[in-house]
Amino acid sequence: MAANRGGLFVDTTHEFSQRVTLPAGADAAVAAVAALHAFEPLIFAQPLVTSAERRAPTPEEAAAVAADPFMVVDGPAAATATAAADAGPAMVVAYSCIERMPVIPGLREHQTLLWRFTPRLTVRVPVLFVRTDTGVRVLVRARYGPLAVVMRCSYDVRRPPTATASAASAFEFFEETAVTGLGFLMAFVVPSIESAHKEEARNFVAKLATACAAGSTIPPAHSP
Fold first, then answer.
1. pLDDT reported for residue 39
2. How far apart are CA 79 and CA 132, in angstroms?
3. Helices then strands, each counted (H, E), the chain
4. Per-residue 3-state assignment (H helix, E strand, C coil) for 177-204
5. What is the rounded distance in angstroms from the CA atom of residue 75 to the CA atom of residue 134?
6. pLDDT at site 13
7. Among 35, 125, 170, 217, which is most exposed with the fewest C-beta within 10 angstroms?
């Protein structure tokens, strides 16, 4: 995903990535992929999300995924649906999520009290998923009144690039995200988005560790 920079009234793209170490063992890696393929453990790990409803993708959404090179994937996960509800040429899974976005520009997670008590804008966000062999790719088009922000996210379970043969059981949760929108709008939303995604990764891995310790295969998914 290539980044570009522009002025306040032209589209700009901000990229970020992160990795979180998974609990040791191949079983945790398998459970993490299963949790990503279940979608809701990831959705409800995101602190801005207050509710989510699975639905059928619209023809326009399916066409948007098919036309987006980032969302076009190969491999068994792309060729085979794991549930009848996912049947369709692009294997697109859609959710409508409700998010409460802080309205103070530049707000970040370390400002704990301000983050907790700041006024928030309630936004309905359509989220589109496509499974990959190691996780999911996500396309989000969030609207803020007449304005829109587009996010393309990949979430994968992989071996760390620096892993050695002696660390054969080491895996990590890895995210890459690109956010695109008008420059002045990005100043408001990017800090909150990036902060929320950092917390999402921590929450996802923490719930995975708890589930694995309890002998479960997928962390519970529920609205906060």
1. 96
2. 10
3. 6, 7
4. EEEEEEHHHHHHHHHHHHHHHHHHHHHH
5. 10
6. 95
7. 217
Query: In sequence order, which residues have a C-beta less than 8 Å from that of residue 39 and are 6 or more positions away?
Result: 54, 93, 95, 129, 136
Q: Which residue has the tokens 């990005």?
A: 186
Name residue, tokens 């009290």. 113
Residue found under tokens 């802080």: 102
SS3 state of residue 37: helix
- The confidence score (pLDDT) of residue 116 equals 60
Q: What is the C-alpha to C-alpha distance for residues 160 and 21, in angstroms, rounded to an integer?
A: 8
Q: Block means of pLDDT (10 residues each) for the chain, length 224 residues? A: 58 95 89 95 93 95 93 65 42 92 58 58 91 96 85 95 68 96 86 90 94 75 49
How far apart are the C-alpha atoms of 88 and 37, rounded to whole Å? 16
Q: How far separated are the first and last CA of the chain, in Å rounded?
A: 32
At residue 152, the pLDDT reads: 97
Looking up tokens 């969302």 gives 71
Q: How far is CA 205 from CA 12, 71, 178, in A?
A: 31, 24, 21
DSSP codes joined into one string, 116-148: HHS-EEEEEEEEEEEEETTEEEEEEEEEETTEE
Q: pTM for this structure? A: 0.83
Phi, psi of 170 (to 5 degrees): -85, 130
* Residue-level pLDDT at 81: 42
Q: What are the tokens at 140? A: 């989000």
Position 131 scores a pLDDT of: 95
Q: What angle do CA 142, 151, 134 make, to 5 degrees?
A: 130
Name every residue whose Cβ is closer than 8 Å to that of residue 110 and which is 6 or more positions away in sequence: none
